[in-house]
Amino acid sequence: MSYNTFGHVFRVTTFGESHGPALGCVVDGCPPGIPLKESDIQKDLDRRRPGQSKYVSQRKEPDRVQILSGVFQDERMEAQLTTGTPIALMIENLDARPRDYSDIRDKFRPGHADYTYWAKYEVRDYRGGGRQSARETAARVAAGAIARNLLDSVYPGVHIRGALVQMGPHHIARERWDWDEVARNPFFCPDAGAIAGWAAYLEIEVVAEGIPAGLGAPIYAKLDAEIAAALMSINAVKGVEIGDGFASALLSGENNSDEMRKGSDGNPAFLSNHAGGILGGISSGQPIVARFAVKPTSSILKPMRTIDIAGNETEIVTKGRHDPCVGIRAVPVGEAMLACTLADHALLHRAQTGAP
Question: pLDDT tens digit string along 9-22?
């Protein structure tokens, strides 16, 4: 009932707060025999960690991950492998500054979950938002790295990548899309010419290639519904769409249909991908495409009107180290949530159908 766990077979439970001693996760349901070492996880955490540019939080956290359980290697083995038991991961908080939040311990920050957490629990960790802080997403990224290794063992060559495709009214030019460019700029943007005027509102696209047809389960475990739920659970996300999403309402049935021909490998060759790789809640074998919108940051230095826990009207100025553009670091988080969802459904598919 606490809802700190997601997934059906590949289950992830995250723990920890923004300014507590550590955060992390326990991944249960990962099959045995999957190669896994700390460096596999660290490379994804390094993409998400704060302090890497002026556009993100200046909190200096190395985000070094420790694998505490669930793997084994001895002198007879070429690689460290998962054992099929729970994998516990821990990331220490080394640059926590809870004193930065002492001025707001009795005040609710507008645009944050301070009031709703108080209304539900009648106790609130005001140190950077506690459990509601986006720092919790480091644990998701760590779990996502395990999911990537699992997917690669089941579907060799699978690729899960994300990119920032819109900020405010500024769109990328899709004809200039370059996946290599994503790693060369602090915005995770695939269009080098698009980033000059970006400011405060973001739309992120995540794509999974190499996923076969058949993942997902109608009616109540549709793959697109579960991807949407996973992405919607990310801090500050306020909208999700699959494929053309809301733009589908502007198309005719003829234009929206993804026509098929026989491919050279005997599988269908789709002539378009308006559905984003999912039909009837089941993957079609096309690239799975999802987008999510991230709201602008609510932690600003401008005085804002609010109330305190006693109901008194007051003003608040939020200090501390916050992401000026809150969604930039959400790109690797979105990739991780997509990876975890697909890993979960790969195992569900194998359990139900006996597929290898």
Answer: 999 999 999 888 99
CB 78 within 8 Å of CB 51: no
Among residues 207, 177, 175, 171, which one has the least CA distance to residue 190?
A: 177
Give the CA-trace dihedral at 173, 178, 180, 181, to 10 degrees.
-20
- End-to-end C-alpha distance for the chain, whole angstroms: 33
Residue type, 275: A
pLDDT digits (tens, 9 = 90+) for 179-230: 888 888 777 888 887 766 554 457 899 999 999 999 999 899 999 999 999 9
Q: For the whole model, what pTM was predicted?
A: 0.90
Please state, in angstroms and as integers, the Cα–Cα distance from residue 297 to each residue in 29, 69, 112, following that order: 35, 36, 9
Burial class (CB in 10 A: 0-12, 13-18, 19+), 239: middle
Q: Which amino acid is at 312?
A: N
Place of tokens 């739309």: 203
* Encoded tokens for 168: 């405010």
| Closest to 185 (Cα-Cα) out of 354, 23, 54, 293 | 54
Q: HEC states along the chain?
A: CCCCEECCCCEEEEEECCCCCEEEEEEECCCCCCECCHHHHHHHHHHHCCCCCCCCCCCCCCCCEEECCCEECCCCCCCCEECCCCEEEEEECCCCCHHHHHHHCCECCCCCCHHHHHHHHCCCCCCCCHHHCHHHHHHHHHHHHHHHHHHHHHCCCCEEEEEEEEECCEECCHHHCCHHHHCCCCCCCCCCCCCCCCCCCEEEEEEEECCCCCCCECCCECHHHHHHHHHHCCCCEEEEEECCHHHHHHCCHHHHCCCEEECCCCCEEECCCCCCCEECCEECCCCEEEEEEECCCCCCCCCEEEEECCCCEEEECCCCCCCCCCCCCHHHHHHHHHHHHHHHHHHHHHHHHCCC
The half-sphere exposure of 196 on its side-chain side, counting CA atoms within 13 A, is 2
Residue 26, both tokens: 């326990």
Give whole-number Cα distances, 289 to 68, 107, 172, 224, 276, in Å.
Answer: 34, 40, 16, 10, 5
Query: Do 238 and 203 meet the contact criterion of CB atoms below 8 Å apart?
Result: no
